[in-house]
Design goal:
The protein has a domain at 4-134: Gcn5-related N-acetyltransferase (GNAT) (Aminopeptidase). It is of the alpha+beta class. The protein has a nine-stranded mixed sheet, sandwiched between helices. The chain has helices at residues 25-34, 50-63, 116-130, 146-155, and strands spanning 4-6, 9-11, 15-19, 69-75, 80-93, 96-107, 136-142, 158-169, 172-182.
């Protein structure tokens, strides 16, 4: 897969990833409002009003690029696909060097099952390893989220463990699978 980067923008054969902007708010809000099931396995609920999405975009922009990079994902024809990001970017803490981040993403239902999430995630890992010079990218997913597991495994992420009853949502305790990919193991 060919990945082209210019600044923080990423281009693949089918996708354009651009840093999140205020101009993306309406499409994000409309998609999550129309498809609340997208949030089933995510850390946030669907927005209840446009202001929720505005606050999220403002938070992302405030932390860009030192703590996180969030991209709006569109097709090459400018059709909205979803969001993806590298979160919790950590460089050093006292004497320890980390150079790591955690990948996260969601896509609208009409783009699921077409290899879009894998293409998007691979491009983000490429960017993280090459442009941000990350040593490791972490990932996690609810154990029941087989689609996310497939995406991460296709890229080369390896399981490092399962956190049993890691969090409670919808009245149920969920197991959470942890994965990671080291830069030396990423096949570009």
């Amino acid at each position: 897969m060919q990945v082209m980067t210019l600044g923080f923008s990423i281009s693949t054969e089918r996708l354009q990833l651009t840093p999140l902007e205020e101009s993306d708010i309406d499409e994000i809000y409309a998609t999550l409002s129309a498809h609340p099931e997208i949030c089933e396995f995510l850390t946030f609920d669907p927005p209840t009003c446009r202001k929720d999405t505005e606050d999220f975009v403002e938070y992302c922009k405030k932390n860009f690029p030192k703590k996180e990079v969030v991209w709006c994902v569109r097709t090459q024809k400018k059709e909205f696909v979803g969001l993806a990001g590298l979160h919790d970017i950590r460089r050093t803490e006292l004497a320890w060097q980390f150079d790591m981040a955690e990948i996260g993403y969601w896509i609208a239902p009409q783009w699921q099952g077409k290899g879009i999430a894998t293409e998007m995630a691979r491009a983000i890992v490429f960017f993280g390893m090459n442009n941000l010079e990350l040593h490791k990218i972490k990932a996690g997913h609810v154990l029941d989220n087989a689609a996310s597991a497939r995406v991460l495994e296709k890229i080369g992420f390896q399981e490092v463990g399962i956190r049993r009853d890691h969090f409670k949502r919808y009245g149920t305790w969920w197991d959470y699978r942890l994965l990671e990919l080291l830069s030396k193991n990423f096949e570009q």
